[in-house]
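dude i think i finally got it to work??
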Amino acid sequence: MRQALTAAYDFEWMNKTLFHGQYERLQSFFHGSELAATGTPSSEEMQVLTPLLSKLEPIQRKAVLAEWQLPSSDGNGFNRQGLLKARQLLLDAGFYYDDMTLYQPNGQPAQIEILMTGETMGRVLLPYIRNLKRLGFEATLRQVDGPQYYERTRRFDYDMVVDVFAQSLSPGAEQAAFWGSAAADEPGNHNSAGIKNAAVDEVVANLGNAKNRDEIVLYTQVLDRLLRAGHYVVPLYGKSGTNVAYWNQYRHTDTLPTNAVGIDYWWVDKEAEGRINKYLKQ
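look at this
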C-alpha cells in the first residue's frame, strides 16, 4: 500500500504547474550530499547489508539492493501510468474494488486522512487527494488549528502528515529519534512514520558508534537505502541550492561554505555601490 501512495503522487505536474519547475524530487533522505546512497550498493555497503537482509520483508530486500528511482509522470496532470501502477500494487496487496470504491483486505473501506495546519500546503495536497480518490480511497484533507495539530502529532493521531527531517552533514546517534523503533512509541518524538525495523535499528546504532568520517558516510548511505526500501514516506520536493536576490554591489569568494550562502563572508564593492547610489538618486 505504501508503494501505491508514492506512485499516486504526481511531482512532475506539481513542479511544473505550482512551482514553475524550480524544485527537485527528493530521491534520498540525505539529498544533495555525499551521504545519499546512489546506484546499486557498493562492496562496502554490501558487507553491512548482507547480514541484515533476513530482517527485511521480501519487497524491502529487493528494493534495498536495486538502484533507487522514484516513479515519474509526463507532467500532463493525469499521471495515468502512476495510477495504474498504484492500482495494481493495491490489488496485489489484497485490496479490491466494489462499485468504484476501494476496500481493504479485511472488507473495510480504504480511508485515508491527511492532517495539516495552516493553508500553505493545501495547494500541494489537494491534487494528491484527488489522485487518491481516483484510486478509490475515501481521502480527506483535514485542516486543524495549531494546538490541535501539535497534540495530535505528539500522540501520532493521524494517517498522514507533512514532515521535515532536517539533517546535518554529520549524522549520528540522533537518528534513533527519527527512525528508531523505541521512538515510534514515545509521544512527542520525531519518528512520525512509526518505523519499527530491526535492520534500521542496527544501522542507526552503528552510525552512532562510527569511529571516523568514512564510517559515518558508509552507515548513513546504508540507512538511506533501508529507509527508501521501506517506503515509509512519500518523498516530496526540495532544492540542492539556495536562490538569493541581491544588489550587484555585493561580492563573495568563489568557494562558499557547504550547504550555506555564506553571507557572513560577503563584502561591499565600493565602486559598484557608488554606481548604484548614483542611479537611485536619479
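The mean pLDDT is 94.
im so relieved honestly
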